[in-house]
Automatic annotation (TrEMBL):
Residues 395-677 form the ABC transmembrane type-1 domain. The gene is msbA. GO terms for biological process: lipid A biosynthetic process. This is Lipid-A-disaccharide synthase. The keyword RNA-binding does not apply. HAMAP family: LpxB. The chain crosses the membrane at residues 394-419, 431-450, 532-552, 621-643. It is a multi-pass membrane protein. Condensation of UDP-2,3-diacylglucosamine and 2,3-diacylglucosamine-1-phosphate to form lipid A disaccharide, a precursor of lipid A, a phosphorylated glycolipid that anchors the lipopolysaccharide to the outer membrane of the cell. SMART domains: AAA. NCBIfam families: lpxB (TIGR00215), MsbA_lipidA (TIGR02203).
Length: 960
């Protein structure tokens, strides 16, 4: 049972520690969690140490806090030096955690830092300490991964914890209704911070700036987000005469942000929080002149808010020190409120930041980078388990290896009769026999060596091929949520690079472990046969050699894993750059992409150089240790020969066997390095293989006949894994066979999630989805998906012929059927003009074709599959007008007599749908035709008007 210790020293760290504890327990229900934290970690099931239950390091510590912190550090250090843990996770609070890591660093367990110090801004001096005492950093900002890796610190980006705490989307109208506000008026939100000192400094300036904003906007409504750490009396005192004009909201900062048109916010995490919600803001910050002077000397970045730091430019205005005045604040606020284009640019930048923060996996994945003690041997025996299928060949290889080892020992033994019989006794008979014996041994040994080498290589390469095949099949069968969380570059690295580490190692390792191990044993036998006293000296030297192998192997394994992670990131960068090469060139960003690649390339190079450095160290060390033993043996054994207690032939046979035993030991050292690299790759491979596939969860066996009646959603609720907020709430409605239904709504409203339940990409958390009354969870998954065709906005074509791309969903289709489908999709005309017609290669993802041509091939593929249910994801949104007309015609042929679900991003494309389902915050808000929904004047009307107004300033040119 894994045993993990968590340490956090701040209020926010207690929240993040609780989320981490829940995720770890979900990952492994048997995990034992012990740590330091507050009430939230206690509620999450962490056993808190009673004598250090609370450590509060918020703000500048006073004498009392310093004494308490010192006592806590001493207590924790003593405890962690006594107890054994598999992993220690440090969360935020660098003042406490870095000191603790330094005190406990010489340990066998791994120390992981989650929410690491922002050394990229002010503390590069700490990089050396982090590199020395921290096993792995889990980064929460995208650029931190490359920064730490460039400094030689293992790091994985896991996403910002705010993403787990925020809802997928916020609706301003709903939040205003919840807070009792007029939904039509201008609303300004005030977020002055959570510390009394900064609130006293900032809030009066906010209030006076709002007075100036009221001049052009007299009906402005003001919200104040009051943190739990602030007392009501202090807030009322600061509001004074403004208390009747400001609505105070306690503990609902997210809701205040979502309900506001503009925010006035103190620099800190709240700026990122506001950006993720999507509300424009003005950022302020003021500290003491001394602190500001010190910060200016230490801080290396030009911005103070996380929003601007992530964007790399000033997206939101920052008013610092002397510029934090009511006049400046009001000026910047009015500048944003009166400039719609500036608001849109700010919102778009926020969306880009949210997208950048939204990838990288999960916290528990980061923790799994360092498996618990004993997992290495489990990994080794798991690899061995694959060898059962080849046991007969392995037996043959073992016999050959034993032959090579035994005959090598004969070489060493022959030294004695050669020296004593020929050179000392001058025996003529020996002069004839011994050369023939040596020749016969050589021929026989060569035969055994060939058999052993061939059989071991055969087994090794087939073994790796089997694992790679199993890994690929398993990955394509993993649920969609796994692919959502992992980039294609990282998956490619698992299948190619990680397995290659095994492929490069296993054949040679099998050969070296069998042959060199047996050879070493055979040579030891000769050594003991010739003189057991000298042999004992050899055995005394061996443990020192083993110690070198263990230490070197441990470091090589760690560096190999770091190198493999770098390859994964490099593959992602390469794929993005090559697949988006037109965008890269169009925006002139070749240098930027070169810099991105350079960072990953440097990280890989650093890991490989250090690994080579460590490998190169092993042989010289072993040689020095061996020479020390040899020198002593020559001195002691030579004395025995001079004293007449040992024949010269015996001594030189002993020396020959000893030297010949050293060679296998050195080769096993090289094999050890390969083993560590293979284990590092195998652990990453098995991490994926151990994930549960769709087949493992497939409960259904019944074959689903073609849909004839309806598709029904009954009480459907869905939550994404790791999210507390439901993406869908209580969905109930029915789609009749042959009906065209469109799903519309704002981004994050749940329309794509809802449609994704139909092909069972995701399973409902609650409720059922039925086809003709059959619960789709209880039917055969393949028979379900055979009934569904998908045409997405991002067309996917394979690097194959046009014929094979169209027939992808029906591999047995005749050429006539393929041509008929191409005609129906209005694709045959351009296919005929191509040099090789249907046999034309389309290139990677169809890059040799235009967007419209690719889309029509995707439609032809769906037509040929002839599915009763069709899912369209705004298939024309990225096309020019001419291509769009052809694709619309092709879609008209495709939807005939089919049940069609359209995910609509442009309302103009779904006006003729039989029904339109309007979604909002995971719920169905309205259902009806285009005309009836416009008459109702609800959310659909507002969405329609918004899109209509946005398109008015840029009308299409007319032709005469």
């Amino acid at each position: 049972m894994p045993k993990i210790f968590l340490v956090t020293g701040e209020t926010s760290g207690d929240i993040h520690g609780a989320h981490l504890a829940l995720a770890l327990r979900e990952l492994n229900p048997g995990v034992e969690l012990i740590g330091v934290g507050g009430s939230r970690m206690l509620a999450a099931g962490v056993s808190l140490l009673p004598h250090v239950k609370r450590v509060d390091a918020m703000g500048v510590p006073g004498i009392r806090q310093l004494i308490q912190g010192w006592k806590t550090l001493r207590t924790l250090t003593s405890y962690l030096q006594r107890e054994r843990f598999d992993v220690i996770i440090l969360i935020d609070s660098p003042g406490l955690n870095l000191r603790l890591a330094k005190a406990i660093a010489p340990r066998s367990c791994k120390i992981i830092y989650y929410i690491a110090p922002q050394v990229w801004a002010w503390g590069s001096r700490r990089l050396t300490l982090i590199r020395r005492v921290i096993s792995h950093v889990l980064a929460i900002l995208p650029f931190e991964e490359a920064y730490f890796q460039k400094a030689g610190i293992p790091c994985t980006y896991v996403g910002h914890p705010l993403l787990d705490e925020l809802k997928p989307a916020y609706d301003m109208v709903h939040e205003r209704q919840e807070l009792g506000l007029n939904r039509e008026d201008l609303v300004i939100g005030l977020l002055p911070g959570s510390r009394a000192r900064e609130v006293r400094e900032v809030l009066p300036a906010f209030l006076r700036s709002v007075e100036q904003i009221r001049i052009p906007y007299p009906r402005v409504q003001v919200l104040l987000a009051q943190a739990h750490s602030l007392s009501d009396s202090m807030v009322n005192e600061l509001l004074g005469p403004f208390s009747q004009q400001v609505k105070v909201v306690k503990g609902l900062s997210n809701e205040v942000m979502a309900a506001s048109n503009l925010l006035l916010v103190t620099s800190g995490t709240a700026t990122l929080q506001a950006a993720l919600i999507g509300t424009p803001m003005v950022v302020v910050y003021r500290t003491s002149p001394l602190t500001y002077h010190i910060a200016k000397r230490l801080v290396k970045i030009p911005y103070i808010s996380l929003v601007n730091i992530l964007a790399g430019q000033e997206i939101v205005p920052e008013l610092i020190q002397d510029r934090m005045t009511p006049d400046y604040i009001a000026h910047e606020a009015l500048g944003i409120l009166q400039d719609v284009r500036r608001q849109q640019d700010m919102t778009q930048a926020f969306h880009t930041i949210r997208t950048a923060l939204g990838g990288g996996g999960s916290v528990e994945t980061g923790c799994s980078l360092y498996p618990c003690r004993g997992d290495r041997m489990k990994t080794f025996w798991r690899i061995v388990s694959y060898l059962r299928e080849y046991r007969l060949r392995l037996l043959g290889a073992f016999v050959c290896s034993a032959g090579v080892a035994g005959l090598s020992a004969v070489y060493a033994w022959l030294v004695q009769p050669v020296l004593d019989g020929i050179f000392i006794e001058r025996n003529q008979e020996m002069l004839l026999i011994l050369p023939l014996a040596v020749l016969g041994v050589a021929i026989l040994k060569a035969s055994f060596a060939y058999g052993q080498g061939y059989l071991m290589s055969y087994v090794g390469h087939w073994l790796v091929s089997d694992i790679r095949q199993q890994l690929f099949i398993h990955i394509v069968r993993l649920p969609i949520r796994f692919h959502d969380a992992n980039t294609s570059g990282r998956l490619m690295a698992r299948v190619i690079s990680d397995v290659n580490e095994m492929a490069n190692a296993i054949p040679s390792v099998l050969k070296d472990i069998f042959q060199q191990g047996l050879t070493f044993v055979a040579m030891l036998s000769v050594v003991f046969y010739q003189n057991w006293k000298l042999a004992t000296i050899v055995l005394v030297v061996l443990p020192f050699s083993s110690l070198v192998l263990v230490r070197v192997g441990r470091r090589i394994r760690k560096l190999s894993k770091r190198g493999q992670e770098s390859i994964g990131r490099m593959a992602s960068v390469l794929k993005e750059a090559f697949s988006g090469i037109k965008i890269v060139k169009a925006y002139g960003q070749e240098e930027k992409e070169a810099d991105r690649f350079s960072l990953t390339n440097q990280a890989f190079r650093t890991a490989k150089v250090k690994s080579s450095q460590t490998s190169a160290m092993a042989s010289p060390l072993l040689e020095v240790i061996g020479v020390c033993g040899v020198a002593f043996i020559i001195w002691y054994g030579g004395g025995l020969v001079i004293a007449g207690e040992m024949k010269p032939g015996e001594f030189f046979s002993f020396l020959a066997a000893m030297f010949m035993a050293y060679a296998p030991l050195r080769k096993m050292s090289g094999a050890n390095e390969s083993v560590q690299r293979a284990l590092a790759g195998a652990q990453r491979v098995f991490q994926v293989l151990d994930l549960e596939s769709e087949l493992a969860k497939d409960e259904g066996k019944k074959i689903l006949p073609p849909m004839a009646k309806n598709l029904e959603f009954s009480g459907v609720t869905f939550r994404y894994e790791g999210s507390d907020e439901a993406a869908l709430h209580g969905i109930n409605f029915t789609i009749n066979a042959g009906e065209v239904v469109a799903f519309v709504g704002a981004s994050g409203s749940g329309k794509t999630t809802l449609v994704s339940l139909v092909p069972r990409f995701y399973r409902p958390t609650e409720g059922t989805v039925k086809i003709d009354g059959e619960d789709i969870r209880l039917v055969d998954r393949s028979s379900l998906r055979r009934q569904i065709g998908i045409v997405s906005q991002e067309t996917v074509l394979f690097d194959d012929t046009i014929r094979n791309n169209i027939a992808y969903g029906r591999l047995d289709a005749s050429e006539e059927a393929v041509i008929e489908a191409a005609r129906a999709a209005f694709a045959w005309e351009f296919i005929e003009r191509l040099p090789h017609g249907l046999d034309t290669l389309v290139g990677e993802n169809g890059l040799r074709l235009s967007g419209g041509q690719r889309q029509r091939l995707a439609i032809a593929r769906a037509i040929l599959r002839d599915p009763p249910i069709l899912i369209l994801d705004e298939a024309t949104s990225a096309l020019d007008s001419e291509s769009e007309k052809l694709v619309q015609k092709a879609l008209a042929n495709l939807v005939k007599a089919r049940t069609t679900l359209i995910i609509a991003h442009r309302l103009s494309t779904v006006q003729h749908a039989d029904r339109i389902v309007v979604m909002n915050r995971g719920k169905i808000e309205e259902i009806g035709t285009h005309a009836t929904l416009l008459q109702q004047g609800g959310l659909y009307t507002r969405l329609y008007q918004t899109q209509f107004l946005l398109t008015q300033p840029e009308p299409l040119p007319t032709t005469s």
